[in-house]
């Protein structure tokens, strides 16, 4: 079963991105974040779950 990756603006409850795949990697997450940053600017904060794609310190 594919694992979903969803990025939601908690203030507006708008779904900004949804990705499906057998395995979402850090590269997948980074690509989505870079695309959204180019379109919408840099967010004040990011809240993440402790999924395996966030083991990397690249998010810091």
Automatic annotation (TrEMBL):
Q: Where is the signal peptide?
A: none
Q: Which GO terms describe its molecular function?
A: nucleic acid binding
Domain Integrase catalytic span(s) in chain numbering: 1-60
What are the recorded Gene Ontology BP terms? DNA integration
Q: Identify this protein by name.
A: Integrase catalytic domain-containing protein
Instruction: Give the species this sequence originates from.
Output: Lacipirellula parvula
Its taxonomic placement starts with:
Bacteria, Pseudomonadati, Planctomycetota, Planctomycetia, Pirellulales
């Amino acid at each position: 079963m594919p694992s979903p990756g969803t990025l939601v603006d908690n203030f507006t409850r708008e779904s900004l991105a949804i990705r499906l795949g057998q395995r979402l990697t850090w590269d997948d997450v980074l690509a989505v974040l870079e695309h959204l940053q180019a379109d919408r600017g840099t967010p004040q904060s990011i809240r993440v779950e402790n999924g395996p794609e966030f083991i990397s310190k690249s998010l810091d």
